[in-house]
Q: What sequence folds into this?
């Protein structure tokens, strides 16, 4: 049993964990996110879209790494666009970038606790939180191994561990399943479902099956705009036998994308 | 704080008396958590049975500690882990800076008809280090770092201070050894002014781009002409000292005003 802090029992006064209105974000000169409206509450949200649809740029903007070029972006009730103070929102954020860099000489434990320190966690909580995060991603046996000795899948899990070390309320995972073997992917889905019970988790992926298995909601974007948002079951209902795909969800995905593209070109 | 339970209640609690109702047990436990005196009273009224249990647990814990792995020895360097990568990433750059300054000192010594090359290059000495300390090339985890609450001017200043702590002693050593034939203040002040200018310009275009730009500009506008004419520029003659102080202070103040722009990726 552990003591519950006042911050944990405080009532939430914001309707959405992540709220974007007409959000515009640049990736270089290109406007990769162009007028996106999105509201995400508690749960696991799967972000689907083709290559270049703006998934990574959207992730970076929500992670407060990139500054929006226009529109409004609110995280946990505090605005994070323009010159806003980002500290409060960033403390409640967890972020795994698509290509995450790391210090090859660090051990998994050093890396995760360094990130916990950067996230301004209380010093005495860091060792326990680090151990818990490493245990949750199943890297306990490798906790004291140097990062450069780890395989791709293990590195990915170390990345997930640093993202969840501060028990974030908004967790952003950009393609977390890359390089994981089938069994580890099942474990990760389990972890996502667990995290999604009390946090807003946004997972970007290309694998429709992962979304169906682990997510409570699907967000489909294209050309930087929201195409569709709904439950995995509703996604499966969108398609029928005429659409390409090996599962109902894949058929629904291609049906939505095709009808959107047909509308856009009309 | 809740009221102290009576001695009788504590004794019954220690005995595990089934007659004590749950609400009383809870209130005693809540009180015990915050009251050292009552915990001491509880220790006095424990039964032989529970003392034996505690002793058994203590022995088991001791056995576990003796059988388990030894505590890990402190890691190399004895520095916190967060500084270790930083020092490792910077050392090659500082070594390069020292090498360039050493070569400049040799040239100054042998080519006495030219102005002091050490003095001409001193303002640029910290810039390679500052550029590496805050760039995507120097810090592999830049995307993780820049999304954390600690990212910002404070972190940049801490890293810059680390660079200066490594570079300034090198410069000071050259000044003391007399290799530069120059006033130490005129070696160190431009150095600080250029560091502040890099940070200020870096808030607009990114720190490493600012460092490269300033190095190129200084080399083209001051170093090359003064080597060509074999005369020390006015900027680096003793009367200019006051000007460098003013410039440093102003640039540092302007950098502080632009603190917000270091929280995003654009400054990396």
A:
């Amino acid at each position: 049993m552990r003591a519950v802090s006042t911050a944990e029992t405080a009532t939430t006064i914001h309707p959405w964990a992540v709220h974007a209105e007409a959000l515009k974000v640049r990736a270089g000169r290109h406007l990769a996110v162009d007028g996106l409206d999105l509201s995400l509450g508690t749960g696991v949200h799967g972000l689907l879209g083709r290559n270049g649809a703006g998934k990574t740029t959207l992730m970076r903007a929500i992670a407060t790494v990139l500054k929006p070029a226009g529109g409004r972006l609110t995280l946990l009730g505090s605005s994070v666009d323009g010159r806003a103070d980002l500290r409060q929102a960033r403390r409640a954020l967890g972020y795994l970038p698509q290509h995450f860099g790391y210090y090859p000489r660090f051990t998994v434990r050093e890396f995760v606790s360094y990130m916990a320190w950067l996230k301004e966690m209380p010093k005495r909580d860091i060792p326990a939180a680090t151990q818990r995060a490493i245990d949750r991603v199943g890297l306990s046996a490798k906790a004291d191994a140097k990062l450069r000795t780890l395989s791709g899948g293990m590195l990915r899990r170390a990345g997930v561990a640093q993202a969840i070390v501060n028990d974030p309320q908004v967790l952003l995972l950009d393609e977390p399943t890359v390089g994981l073997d089938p069994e580890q992917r099942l474990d990760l889905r389990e972890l996502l479902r667990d995290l999604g019970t009390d946090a807003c988790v946004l997972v970007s992926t290309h694998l429709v099956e992962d979304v169906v298995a682990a997510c409570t909601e699907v967000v489909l974007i294209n050309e930087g705009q929201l195409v569709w948002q709904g439950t995995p079951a509703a996604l499966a209902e969108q398609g029928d036998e005429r659409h390409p795909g090996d599962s109902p969800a894949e058929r629904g995905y291609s049906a939505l994308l095709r009808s959107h593209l047909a509308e856009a070109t009309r | 704080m809740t009221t102290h339970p009576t001695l009788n209640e504590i004794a019954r609690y220690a005995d595990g008396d089934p007659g004590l109702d749950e609400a009383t047990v809870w209130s005693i436990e809540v009180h015990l958590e915050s009251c050292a005196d009552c915990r001491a009273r509880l220790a006095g009224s424990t039964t032989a049975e529970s003392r034996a249990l505690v002793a058994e647990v203590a022995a088991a814990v001791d056995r576990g500690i003796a059988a388990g792995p030894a505590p890990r020895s402190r890691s190399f360097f004895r520095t916190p882990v967060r500084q270790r990568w930083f020092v490792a990433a910077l050392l090659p750059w500082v070594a390069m800076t020292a090498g360039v300054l050493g070569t400049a000192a040799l040239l100054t010594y042998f080519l006495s008809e030219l102005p002091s090359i050490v003095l001409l290059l001193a303002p640029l000495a910290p810039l390679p280090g500052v550029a590496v300390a805050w760039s995507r090339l120097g810090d592999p985890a830049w995307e993780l770092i820049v999304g954390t609450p600690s990212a910002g001017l404070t972190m940049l200043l801490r890293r810059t201070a680390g660079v200066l702590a490594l570079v300034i002693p090198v410069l000071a050593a050259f000044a003391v050894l007399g290799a530069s034939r120059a006033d130490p203040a005129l070696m160190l002040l431009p150095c600080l002014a250029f560091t502040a200018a890099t940070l200020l310009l870096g808030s607009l275009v990114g720190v490493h781009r600012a460092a490269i730009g300033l190095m190129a500009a200084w080399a083209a506008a001051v170093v090359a002409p003064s080597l060509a004419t074999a005369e020390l520029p006015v900027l680096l003659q003793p009367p200019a000292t006051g000007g460098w102080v003013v410039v440093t202070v102003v640039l540092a103040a302007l950098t502080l005003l632009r603190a917000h722009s270091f929280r995003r990726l654009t400054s990396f």
Q: What stands out?
A: Chain A touches chain B through 33 residues (CB under 8 Å).
